[in-house]
């Protein structure tokens, strides 16, 4: 449930792009075509979510 809370802090676009990348294994280019955006926009979304997860786990380790 805590991991879902991290995803809940993301925009819908970030969440969708991240899940397509991380769970479905699509490439940045494939996601861009599906979502109607550039590879750069997909990369930025995936990185934003990845950083949120990194912060989440770093905070857990420091507790």
From TrEMBL:
Keywords: DNA-directed RNA polymerase, Transcription. The keyword Transcription applies. The keyword Ribosomal protein does not apply. Residues 2-52 form the RNA polymerase sigma factor 70 region 4 type domain. GO terms for molecular function: DNA binding; sigma factor activity. One of its GO terms (cellular component) is DNA-directed RNA polymerase complex. GO terms for biological process: DNA-templated transcription initiation. This is DNA-directed RNA polymerase specialized sigma subunit, sigma24. It comes from human gut metagenome. The lineage of its organism: unclassified sequences, metagenomes, organismal metagenomes.
